[in-house]
Amino acid sequence: MDQSCHRIGILFSTAGPYGLVGRAMLNGALLAVEEVKAGGGPALAPELVDPAGEIAGYAAGAERLLESGIRHVVGCYTSSSRKEIIPIFEKRDGLLWYPSHYEGFETSGNVVYTGASPNQHIVPLVRHLLARGGRTAYCVGANYIWAWENNRILREALALAGGRVAGERYFAVGETAFGQVIEAILAARPDFVFNTLIGTSAYRFLRDLRGACLAQGIDQPRAMPVASCSLAEPELEAIGPEAVEGHLSSSVYFTSIDSPRNRAFTGAYAARFPDGPTPSADTEASYIAVHLLARALARAGTEDVAAVRRAACAVAFEAPQGPVRLDETTLHACLTPRIGVSTAAARFRIVAQAEEPVAPDPYLVRSAPRVVPVSRRPRLRVVP
Question: Which strands form 348-353's sheet, in the order they lie side by side?
Protein backbone atom coordinates (compact mmCIF):
# COMPACT_ATOMS: atom_id res chain seq x y z
CA MET A 1 0.00 0.00 0.00
CA ASP A 2 1.18 3.55 -0.74
CA GLN A 3 2.90 4.88 2.40
CA SER A 4 0.97 8.13 1.99
CA CYS A 5 -2.31 6.25 2.45
CA HIS A 6 -3.53 6.09 6.04
CA ARG A 7 -5.38 2.97 7.13
CA ILE A 8 -8.16 3.82 9.59
CA GLY A 9 -10.64 1.59 11.38
CA ILE A 10 -14.43 2.00 11.17
CA LEU A 11 -16.23 0.18 14.01
CA PHE A 12 -20.03 0.39 13.80
CA SER A 13 -22.85 -2.11 14.34
CA THR A 14 -24.97 -2.14 11.22
CA ALA A 15 -26.91 -5.17 12.49
CA GLY A 16 -28.56 -5.78 15.85
CA PRO A 17 -31.03 -3.70 17.91
CA TYR A 18 -29.49 -0.32 17.03
CA GLY A 19 -28.29 -1.25 13.54
CA LEU A 20 -30.37 1.52 11.94
CA VAL A 21 -28.32 4.18 13.75
CA GLY A 22 -25.10 2.27 13.08
CA ARG A 23 -25.75 2.25 9.34
CA ALA A 24 -26.36 6.00 9.34
CA MET A 25 -23.11 6.53 11.28
CA LEU A 26 -21.15 4.32 8.89
CA ASN A 27 -22.54 6.30 5.95
CA GLY A 28 -21.43 9.57 7.53
CA ALA A 29 -17.89 8.28 7.98
CA LEU A 30 -17.68 6.92 4.43
CA LEU A 31 -19.01 10.15 2.93
CA ALA A 32 -16.32 12.08 4.78
CA VAL A 33 -13.59 9.69 3.53
CA GLU A 34 -14.72 10.36 -0.03
CA GLU A 35 -14.88 14.13 0.51
CA VAL A 36 -11.39 14.18 1.99
CA LYS A 37 -10.06 12.38 -1.09
CA ALA A 38 -11.96 14.65 -3.50
CA GLY A 39 -10.69 17.72 -1.66
CA GLY A 40 -7.04 16.72 -1.96
CA GLY A 41 -6.64 15.70 1.66
CA PRO A 42 -4.68 12.70 2.93
CA ALA A 43 -5.73 9.39 1.40
CA LEU A 44 -7.73 7.34 3.91
CA ALA A 45 -8.24 3.59 3.55
CA PRO A 46 -11.12 2.56 5.83
CA GLU A 47 -11.23 -0.99 7.19
CA LEU A 48 -14.72 -1.88 8.39
CA VAL A 49 -15.69 -4.04 11.36
CA ASP A 50 -19.32 -4.77 12.29
CA PRO A 51 -19.77 -6.04 15.88
CA ALA A 52 -23.53 -6.54 15.23
CA GLY A 53 -24.40 -4.94 18.57
CA GLU A 54 -22.48 -7.55 20.61
CA ILE A 55 -20.13 -6.22 23.29
CA ALA A 56 -17.64 -9.03 22.70
CA GLY A 57 -17.61 -8.11 19.03
CA TYR A 58 -16.40 -4.59 19.82
CA ALA A 59 -13.47 -5.85 21.87
CA ALA A 60 -12.50 -8.43 19.25
CA GLY A 61 -12.85 -5.88 16.46
CA ALA A 62 -10.79 -3.24 18.25
CA GLU A 63 -8.05 -5.79 19.01
CA ARG A 64 -7.97 -6.92 15.39
CA LEU A 65 -7.73 -3.39 14.00
CA LEU A 66 -5.02 -2.25 16.39
CA GLU A 67 -3.00 -5.46 16.06
CA SER A 68 -2.96 -4.92 12.29
CA GLY A 69 -1.12 -1.62 12.79
CA ILE A 70 -4.06 0.78 12.56
CA ARG A 71 -3.71 3.60 15.09
CA HIS A 72 -6.97 5.51 14.56
CA VAL A 73 -10.48 4.06 14.76
CA VAL A 74 -13.79 5.89 14.29
CA GLY A 75 -16.53 3.99 16.01
CA CYS A 76 -19.01 2.90 18.69
CA TYR A 77 -22.51 4.18 19.39
CA THR A 78 -23.32 2.95 22.89
CA SER A 79 -21.39 3.87 26.03
CA SER A 80 -21.17 0.21 27.00
CA SER A 81 -19.26 -0.56 23.79
CA ARG A 82 -17.02 2.48 24.23
CA LYS A 83 -16.13 1.60 27.80
CA GLU A 84 -15.46 -1.99 26.75
CA ILE A 85 -12.73 -0.97 24.31
CA ILE A 86 -11.11 2.09 25.90
CA PRO A 87 -8.70 -0.10 27.92
CA ILE A 88 -7.63 -1.77 24.67
CA PHE A 89 -6.85 1.61 23.09
CA GLU A 90 -4.98 2.74 26.20
CA LYS A 91 -2.95 -0.49 26.30
CA ARG A 92 -2.07 -0.44 22.60
CA ASP A 93 -1.82 3.36 22.30
CA GLY A 94 -4.49 3.81 19.67
CA LEU A 95 -6.89 6.73 19.32
CA LEU A 96 -10.64 6.09 19.34
CA TRP A 97 -12.66 8.80 17.62
CA TYR A 98 -16.01 8.41 19.39
CA PRO A 99 -18.85 10.00 17.38
CA SER A 100 -21.92 9.86 19.58
CA HIS A 101 -23.66 11.93 22.23
CA TYR A 102 -23.00 10.41 25.64
CA GLU A 103 -23.51 10.80 29.39
CA GLY A 104 -20.16 12.44 30.21
CA PHE A 105 -18.06 11.98 33.34
CA GLU A 106 -15.17 10.57 31.34
CA THR A 107 -11.98 11.67 29.62
CA SER A 108 -9.17 9.63 28.14
CA GLY A 109 -6.04 10.63 26.30
CA ASN A 110 -6.90 7.83 23.87
CA VAL A 111 -10.39 9.06 22.95
CA VAL A 112 -11.55 12.05 20.88
CA TYR A 113 -15.23 12.79 21.52
CA THR A 114 -17.04 14.41 18.59
CA GLY A 115 -20.59 13.83 19.91
CA ALA A 116 -22.41 15.93 22.49
CA SER A 117 -21.44 15.86 26.17
CA PRO A 118 -24.09 16.33 28.91
CA ASN A 119 -23.96 20.12 29.04
CA GLN A 120 -24.68 20.13 25.30
CA HIS A 121 -27.77 17.88 25.38
CA ILE A 122 -29.28 16.86 28.75
CA VAL A 123 -28.76 20.24 30.45
CA PRO A 124 -30.37 22.27 27.60
CA LEU A 125 -33.25 19.79 27.51
CA VAL A 126 -33.90 20.08 31.23
CA ARG A 127 -33.82 23.87 31.04
CA HIS A 128 -36.30 23.75 28.17
CA LEU A 129 -38.67 21.48 30.08
CA LEU A 130 -38.45 23.46 33.32
CA ALA A 131 -39.14 26.70 31.46
CA ARG A 132 -42.38 25.16 30.24
CA GLY A 133 -43.56 24.01 33.64
CA GLY A 134 -42.25 20.45 33.64
CA ARG A 135 -41.60 19.47 37.25
CA THR A 136 -42.51 15.78 37.39
CA ALA A 137 -40.82 13.16 35.24
CA TYR A 138 -41.10 9.44 34.66
CA CYS A 139 -37.82 7.90 33.45
CA VAL A 140 -37.73 4.90 31.14
CA GLY A 141 -34.36 3.76 29.89
CA ALA A 142 -31.96 1.10 28.69
CA ASN A 143 -30.20 -0.72 31.49
CA TYR A 144 -26.68 0.64 31.09
CA ILE A 145 -24.60 3.67 31.93
CA TRP A 146 -26.08 6.03 29.29
CA ALA A 147 -29.50 5.91 30.95
CA TRP A 148 -28.24 5.69 34.54
CA GLU A 149 -26.13 8.84 34.31
CA ASN A 150 -28.60 10.92 32.31
CA ASN A 151 -31.36 10.05 34.76
CA ARG A 152 -29.11 11.01 37.66
CA ILE A 153 -28.49 14.44 36.10
CA LEU A 154 -32.21 14.85 35.50
CA ARG A 155 -33.05 13.93 39.13
CA GLU A 156 -30.58 16.50 40.46
CA ALA A 157 -31.91 19.19 38.15
CA LEU A 158 -35.53 18.55 39.05
CA ALA A 159 -34.71 18.49 42.76
CA LEU A 160 -33.04 21.91 42.48
CA ALA A 161 -36.20 23.23 40.81
CA GLY A 162 -38.51 21.69 43.39
CA GLY A 163 -39.58 18.87 41.08
CA ARG A 164 -39.30 15.11 41.30
CA VAL A 165 -39.02 11.83 39.43
CA ALA A 166 -42.27 9.89 39.83
CA GLY A 167 -40.78 6.60 38.65
CA GLU A 168 -37.71 5.08 37.04
CA ARG A 169 -37.57 1.81 35.09
CA TYR A 170 -34.78 0.15 33.11
CA PHE A 171 -34.93 -2.49 30.38
CA ALA A 172 -32.43 -4.62 28.50
CA VAL A 173 -31.42 -3.28 25.08
CA GLY A 174 -33.84 -4.84 22.60
CA GLU A 175 -36.66 -5.37 25.13
CA THR A 176 -40.12 -4.69 23.72
CA ALA A 177 -42.54 -5.58 26.55
CA PHE A 178 -43.62 -2.25 28.05
CA GLY A 179 -47.19 -2.87 29.14
CA GLN A 180 -46.56 -2.66 32.89
CA VAL A 181 -44.43 0.47 32.81
CA ILE A 182 -46.94 2.23 30.54
CA GLU A 183 -49.70 1.41 33.04
CA ALA A 184 -47.53 2.94 35.77
CA ILE A 185 -46.90 6.05 33.70
CA LEU A 186 -50.60 6.54 33.04
CA ALA A 187 -51.33 6.16 36.73
CA ALA A 188 -48.61 8.68 37.70
CA ARG A 189 -49.49 11.22 34.97
CA PRO A 190 -46.09 12.96 34.99
CA ASP A 191 -45.50 16.29 33.24
CA PHE A 192 -43.19 14.48 30.82
CA VAL A 193 -41.56 11.12 30.17
CA PHE A 194 -37.77 11.06 29.90
CA ASN A 195 -36.78 8.37 27.42
CA THR A 196 -33.29 6.86 27.35
CA LEU A 197 -34.26 3.64 25.59
CA ILE A 198 -32.36 3.01 22.36
CA GLY A 199 -33.02 1.26 19.08
CA THR A 200 -35.96 -1.09 18.66
CA SER A 201 -36.86 -0.73 22.34
CA ALA A 202 -37.44 3.02 21.95
CA TYR A 203 -39.51 2.63 18.80
CA ARG A 204 -41.82 0.06 20.39
CA PHE A 205 -42.18 2.05 23.62
CA LEU A 206 -43.20 5.22 21.77
CA ARG A 207 -45.77 3.34 19.70
CA ASP A 208 -47.22 1.54 22.70
CA LEU A 209 -47.37 4.65 24.88
CA ARG A 210 -49.12 6.63 22.16
CA GLY A 211 -51.61 3.83 21.61
CA ALA A 212 -52.38 3.51 25.34
CA CYS A 213 -52.90 7.26 25.64
CA LEU A 214 -55.22 7.35 22.63
CA ALA A 215 -57.27 4.54 24.15
CA GLN A 216 -57.83 6.71 27.23
CA GLY A 217 -58.46 9.92 25.30
CA ILE A 218 -55.15 11.48 26.36
CA ASP A 219 -53.42 13.90 23.99
CA GLN A 220 -50.01 12.49 24.82
CA PRO A 221 -47.76 15.00 22.97
CA ARG A 222 -49.37 17.90 24.84
CA ALA A 223 -50.34 16.34 28.16
CA MET A 224 -47.32 14.08 28.66
CA PRO A 225 -44.60 14.64 26.04
CA VAL A 226 -41.71 12.22 25.66
CA ALA A 227 -38.31 13.93 25.82
CA SER A 228 -35.06 12.31 24.66
CA CYS A 229 -31.41 13.12 24.08
CA SER A 230 -30.95 10.44 21.46
CA LEU A 231 -34.06 10.26 19.26
CA ALA A 232 -33.03 11.00 15.66
CA GLU A 233 -34.49 11.23 12.17
CA PRO A 234 -33.93 7.66 10.95
CA GLU A 235 -35.57 6.44 14.14
CA LEU A 236 -38.63 8.63 13.57
CA GLU A 237 -39.15 6.77 10.32
CA ALA A 238 -38.88 3.46 12.19
CA ILE A 239 -41.49 4.49 14.77
CA GLY A 240 -44.18 4.75 12.15
CA PRO A 241 -46.80 7.38 11.28
CA GLU A 242 -49.16 6.49 14.12
CA ALA A 243 -46.75 7.70 16.82
CA VAL A 244 -44.07 9.81 15.15
CA GLU A 245 -45.31 13.32 15.89
CA GLY A 246 -44.75 15.48 18.98
CA HIS A 247 -41.61 14.06 20.62
CA LEU A 248 -38.96 16.40 22.05
CA SER A 249 -35.31 15.75 21.27
CA SER A 250 -32.21 17.62 22.38
CA SER A 251 -29.37 17.43 19.88
CA VAL A 252 -26.57 19.42 18.30
CA TYR A 253 -27.74 18.51 14.80
CA PHE A 254 -31.02 18.08 12.94
CA THR A 255 -31.40 17.62 9.19
CA SER A 256 -33.78 20.59 9.22
CA ILE A 257 -31.03 23.12 10.01
CA ASP A 258 -31.53 25.83 7.40
CA SER A 259 -28.06 26.74 6.18
CA PRO A 260 -26.13 26.42 2.91
CA ARG A 261 -23.60 24.13 4.58
CA ASN A 262 -26.24 21.74 5.85
CA ARG A 263 -28.12 21.73 2.57
CA ALA A 264 -24.86 20.79 0.82
CA PHE A 265 -24.30 17.98 3.34
CA THR A 266 -27.79 16.52 3.14
CA GLY A 267 -27.72 16.78 -0.66
CA ALA A 268 -24.39 14.98 -0.90
CA TYR A 269 -25.57 12.33 1.57
CA ALA A 270 -28.81 11.69 -0.33
CA ALA A 271 -26.92 11.39 -3.62
CA ARG A 272 -24.40 8.96 -2.15
CA PHE A 273 -26.86 6.92 -0.07
CA PRO A 274 -30.25 7.15 -1.82
CA ASP A 275 -31.55 4.18 0.17
CA GLY A 276 -30.70 5.86 3.50
CA PRO A 277 -30.92 5.71 6.41
CA THR A 278 -31.66 9.40 6.86
CA PRO A 279 -28.70 11.22 8.44
CA SER A 280 -28.79 12.07 12.13
CA ALA A 281 -26.69 13.78 14.81
CA ASP A 282 -24.61 10.62 15.10
CA THR A 283 -24.15 10.53 11.33
CA GLU A 284 -22.86 14.08 11.49
CA ALA A 285 -20.60 13.27 14.45
CA SER A 286 -19.02 10.42 12.45
CA TYR A 287 -18.63 12.74 9.48
CA ILE A 288 -16.99 15.35 11.72
CA ALA A 289 -14.67 12.75 13.27
CA VAL A 290 -13.28 11.65 9.91
CA HIS A 291 -12.81 15.22 8.67
CA LEU A 292 -11.03 16.27 11.89
CA LEU A 293 -8.88 13.14 11.78
CA ALA A 294 -7.89 13.85 8.17
CA ARG A 295 -6.96 17.44 9.03
CA ALA A 296 -4.98 16.30 12.06
CA LEU A 297 -3.11 13.67 10.03
CA ALA A 298 -2.21 16.26 7.41
CA ARG A 299 -1.03 18.75 10.03
CA ALA A 300 0.93 16.18 12.05
CA GLY A 301 2.51 14.50 9.04
CA THR A 302 2.42 11.20 10.92
CA GLU A 303 -0.01 8.68 12.39
CA ASP A 304 1.68 8.91 15.80
CA VAL A 305 -1.11 9.21 18.36
CA ALA A 306 0.46 11.97 20.45
CA ALA A 307 1.24 14.08 17.39
CA VAL A 308 -2.22 13.60 15.86
CA ARG A 309 -3.88 14.39 19.19
CA ARG A 310 -1.98 17.70 19.41
CA ALA A 311 -2.76 18.52 15.79
CA ALA A 312 -6.46 17.71 16.23
CA CYS A 313 -6.75 20.45 18.85
CA ALA A 314 -5.25 22.98 16.44
CA VAL A 315 -7.65 22.40 13.53
CA ALA A 316 -11.31 23.22 13.01
CA PHE A 317 -14.11 22.15 10.70
CA GLU A 318 -17.16 23.92 9.31
CA ALA A 319 -19.66 21.15 9.98
CA PRO A 320 -23.31 20.94 8.88
CA GLN A 321 -24.33 22.11 12.38
CA GLY A 322 -21.84 25.01 12.32
CA PRO A 323 -18.19 25.50 13.33
CA VAL A 324 -16.63 22.67 15.36
CA ARG A 325 -13.33 22.46 17.15
CA LEU A 326 -11.88 20.35 19.96
CA ASP A 327 -11.24 21.46 23.52
CA GLU A 328 -7.58 20.62 24.14
CA THR A 329 -8.13 19.89 27.83
CA THR A 330 -10.87 17.27 27.44
CA LEU A 331 -10.62 16.26 23.74
CA HIS A 332 -14.38 16.87 23.51
CA ALA A 333 -15.93 18.99 20.76
CA CYS A 334 -17.42 22.47 21.03
CA LEU A 335 -20.94 22.03 19.59
CA THR A 336 -24.20 23.96 19.15
CA PRO A 337 -27.17 22.68 21.24
CA ARG A 338 -30.66 22.65 19.77
CA ILE A 339 -34.13 21.45 20.77
CA GLY A 340 -36.45 19.91 18.19
CA VAL A 341 -40.02 18.62 18.10
CA SER A 342 -40.77 15.70 15.78
CA THR A 343 -43.24 16.20 12.96
CA ALA A 344 -45.58 13.94 10.99
CA ALA A 345 -43.01 14.06 8.17
CA ALA A 346 -40.48 12.23 10.43
CA ARG A 347 -38.28 15.29 10.81
CA PHE A 348 -37.66 17.79 13.60
CA ARG A 349 -38.89 21.35 13.80
CA ILE A 350 -36.20 23.30 15.67
CA VAL A 351 -37.78 25.32 18.49
CA ALA A 352 -34.68 26.57 20.32
CA GLN A 353 -30.95 26.75 19.74
CA ALA A 354 -27.77 28.24 21.17
CA GLU A 355 -26.41 31.39 19.57
CA GLU A 356 -22.94 29.86 19.18
CA PRO A 357 -21.00 26.66 19.88
CA VAL A 358 -20.90 25.67 23.56
CA ALA A 359 -17.65 24.49 25.12
CA PRO A 360 -17.83 20.90 26.40
CA ASP A 361 -18.16 20.32 30.13
CA PRO A 362 -18.14 16.52 30.44
CA TYR A 363 -17.97 16.53 34.25
CA LEU A 364 -20.41 19.44 34.60
CA VAL A 365 -17.89 21.25 36.78
CA ARG A 366 -18.69 24.56 35.08
CA SER A 367 -22.41 23.82 35.11
CA ALA A 368 -22.79 23.50 38.89
CA PRO A 369 -25.41 23.64 40.11
CA ARG A 370 -26.37 21.28 37.29
CA VAL A 371 -29.25 23.48 36.14
CA VAL A 372 -30.09 26.97 37.31
CA PRO A 373 -33.49 28.52 36.59
CA VAL A 374 -33.85 29.44 32.94
CA SER A 375 -35.08 32.91 33.89
CA ARG A 376 -31.66 33.59 35.40
CA ARG A 377 -29.41 31.89 32.82
CA PRO A 378 -30.98 31.61 29.39
CA ARG A 379 -28.94 29.40 27.10
CA LEU A 380 -31.05 28.76 24.03
CA ARG A 381 -32.91 31.29 21.98
CA VAL A 382 -36.40 30.46 20.81
CA VAL A 383 -36.60 29.83 17.08
CA PRO A 384 -39.66 31.47 15.46
Answer: 164-171, 136-142, 192-196, 226-228, 248-251, 338-342, 348-353, 381-382
